[in-house]
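Sample intake sheet
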Amino acid sequence: MECHIKGELHNLTANGALFVRNSVKKYYPFLINVTLSVCKLLDNNVIGVYPRIARALLAQFTNINHSCPYTGVIWARDGYMDAGLLPFAAPAHNSYKAVLTVYEGYPLVSIGFVEFYVDIVESRNGFFTKSPKKGKN
């Protein structure tokens, strides 16, 4: 994913939410809905479990490695999440949707969002994740 920024972004805020699919194939909120200031996060002014996970993922898979303002191109590539980063046991096998919404300014104005779809399935040696097949929701 690449974003070409026109101008400067001074006050970035991100909201991450997790959804689980039920038996009628609708996604409902599940366990996580957290909002963080990206600028404060990268200044190390925010402590806690979710900020630690966010800093680790941003440093490893993106070029977002400094505090605000942001200009030019922002990219994210080849991302994945190691289950060891989670503060809780991996959830049971099911289909999940994670939504990351990015806001700028105050009052907050949505400037984009990213949706991730993940299936967690059981294997002989425990749980592992796989991408859903094309055409399935």
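Comment: The chain has a mean pLDDT of 81. The longest helix spans residues 49-61.
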